[in-house]
Amino acid sequence: IAGITQAPTSQILAAGRRMTLRCTQDMRHNAMYWYRQDLGLGLRLIHYSNTAGTTGKGEVPDGYSVSRANTDDFPLTLASAVPSQTSVYFCASSEDAGASYGYTFGSGTRLTVV
Amino acid sequence: GQNIDQPTEMTATEGAIVQINCTYQTSGFNGLFWYQQHAGEAPTFLSYNVLDGLEEKGRFSSFLSRSKGYSYLLLKELQMKDSASYLCAVRDPNDYKLSFGAGTTVTVRA
Predict the structure, then answer these.
(1) Chain A CB contacts of B98 below 8 Å
(2) How far, in Å, CA of B102 to CA of B12, rounded?
(3) Distance (Å, rounded) from C-alpha A109 to C-alpha A79?
């Protein structure tokens, strides 16, 4: 089934540890995005990539890094996790940055930093 | 910057109509999107407006007024399965990124 796969589904992580959230899509979409969703704040963009080999910072990039070595994969890394990074993380993609249908979202990763 | 406002919660009765308003003040505009998100699930695309007017899709309609920075999502003949959060998002014309409002939680009562 075509779509976006995120892993893990959920994770409890000790503060200070490094963690990579995985995101893979099989739709050959050019653009990919990472959002975090917190109660009352909605979805906030962390990093994005309009095409393989390029990345950009979103609204809340601090403490996170991304890479886009190929079209399909867009991993998000927390170098040294802090409790404020407890959130639900959604990866999304679109055929291109200006697509009229917006984004397709993955099912999310629920991360708890303790 | 982007400022997108929508009500936090709304409650309506099965079979009724509910209108969810969204106002935005953004540095640019390249389209407005509505997404539906059931609890614990990913957002799913509902509608896209880039020109003024009403777009109708079955029981759901979305309206846009660019001069007023205003949109609404109209849900007709409400069903229990429509209980969800509805997210308004505006796309930036420079980098095409979506900025989201905090979402409106709609509860449909029997």
Answers:
(1) 33, 45, 102-103
(2) 20
(3) 17
DSSP 8-state class, residue A96: S
Q: Which residues contact A39 (CB under 8 A, 6 or more apart)?
A: none
% helix, strand, coil for chain B, step of 5: 5, 60, 40
Helix (H) or strand (E) run with residue A66 in it: strand A64-66
User: Over the stretch A67-95, which tens digit does the pLDDT of each residue have?
Assistant: 999 999 999 999 999 999 999 999 999 98
In the prediction, which pLDDT does A88 show? 97
Q: How close A36 gets to chain B, by Cα (Å)?
A: 11
Cβ atoms B89, B35 nearer than 8 A: yes
B/e letters for A47-67, b = 16+ CB within 10 Å, e = fewer, are: bbbbeeeebeebbbbeebebe
Query: B28 forms bridges with which residues in the sheet?
Result: none
Supply angle C-alpha A18, A22, A23, rounded to 5.
150
pLDDT at residue A41 in the model: 87
pLDDT in tens, A13-43: 999 999 999 999 999 999 999 999 998 888 9
Determine the residue type at B33.
Answer: F
On chain B, the residues whose CB falls within 8 A of the CB of A40 are 102
